[in-house]
Specification:
Length: 186
């Protein structure tokens, strides 16, 4: 397959823990690679917290710092023509809006695609991929988004995927459609 370079975009997946961000980020990455798009990097919140944001906690201030750092990396990657796929709870609207502005400042309008990975908290609790909800519900983890910390739902997401009712591949197809539309309109 011919190697293509996709115009730099940041695909920002936000949603509750266990909503499906990591699953979709990895599927999107694979799918873009299969399409021959090689200038792509995945930034997963959990991984970022072991490197770039090691030592930060889950207070509002630390969460905001974590997201701004990821946003800054996306901005740098955008400047150099690399696509970023971010999987991060990113619960606060104001900071998501700030990182959109940071990226669009270098990549232009349409370079930031906000994806709301939407799933009801009851379904997230049922999935409980890492047993974190159970701990949070027992009071063993403080400030856990969806249980004891807020999640501010996006008001102007570029795409909303409902992972409680869609299969992962249906969600990925819907995101890819928006990515390609955003890329071709720029
Ligand atoms: N449409 C969907 N998109 C993404 N994940 C889904 C979907 N439907 C079911 N799932 C399941 O939900 C779980 C989501 O886990 P994960 O991706 O680790 O969530 P997060 O990264 O948001 O915490 C996985 O077990 C995945 O298979
Ligand atoms: Mg994850």
């Amino acid at each position: 397959m011919a190697v293509e370079r996709m115009k730099a975009q940041t695909i920002w997946l936000t949603g509750l823990p266990c909503a499906g961000k990591t699953t979709l980020a990895n599927l999107l990455f694979r799918s873009l690679l299969e399409q021959g798009v090689t200038n792509v990097e995945v930034l997963d919140g959990d991984v970022v917290r072991t490197h770039l944001s090691k030592g930060l906690g889950f207070s509002r201030a630390d969460r905001d710092t974590n997201i701004r750092r990821i946003g800054w990396v996306c901005r740098v990657l955008t400047k150099h023509g690399v696509c970023s796929i971010v999987a991060a709870v990113s619960p606060f609207r104001a900071v998501r809006d700030d990182v959109r502005a940071m990226v669009e400042q270098v990549g232009g309008p349409g370079s930031f695609v906000e994806v709301w990975v939407r799933c009801g908290v009851e379904e997230c609790i049922r999935r409980d991929v890492k047993g974190m909800y159970a701990k949070a519900l027992r009071g063993e983890i403080e400030q856990f988004t969806g249980v004891s910390d807020p999640y501010e739902e996006p008001l102007k997401a570029d795409v909303v995927v409902n992972t409680g009712t869609e299969t992962p591949s249906e969600s990925v197809d819907r995101i890819l459609e928006v990515i390609h539309r955003a890329a071709s309109s720029r």
